Amino acid sequence: VGLLLQRGEEGGKYVELWSKKLHAASGEIEALPVVERVFDVVDKFRDEFTAYIKATKVDTADKAMEIAHSFIKKYSPVALPLKAIREDDVWQVDIDVGALAVKIAKVKIDARTGDILSYEIPQK
Question: Is 8 in the same domain as 31?
Fold first, then answer.
């Protein structure tokens, strides 16, 4: 349910992902020579969507910080995870990327998939 209430960038990515999957399933249905196969395609889509809604790949703050830390290390040699807060199905992780002063990078992670939804890294 949390995914359905998302707004902004996270909600947009969610809608985009499932719109593409729905469009692909529709194309598959249109190409079917036998009506009975339509139910197989619909069932497959429904099962995949249900599994996505129920899944939680990132269920702890430690996992969220580990994913965010690995991601931020690509952009900054200094990265110290500070905190992770879960809001619905999104982890908001703060990471200190300042060498001499505190500079906070923010990473949003999809709790269901572990994907990076967005990030902000302060300039050096």
Answer: yes
Of 52, 54, 74, 87, nearest to 119 (Cα)? 74
- Same domain? 71 vs 102: yes
Containing structural domain, residue 106: 61-120
* CA angle at 41 for the pair 35 and 43, rounded to the nearest 5°: 110
Of the residues 14, 33, 54, the one at which a domain ends: 54
- Predicted model pTM: 0.59
What tokens does 32 get? 């079917």
pLDDT digits (tens, 9 = 90+) for 82-114: 999 999 889 999 999 998 999 999 999 999 889
Backbone angles phi, psi at 122, to 5 degrees: -65, 150
Determine whether 33 is exposed, middle or buried from the number of CB atoms within 10 Å of its CB (0-12, 13-18, 19+): exposed
Q: Please count the helices (runs of H) and the strands (runs of E) in the chain.
A: 3, 4
How many structural domains does the chain have? 2
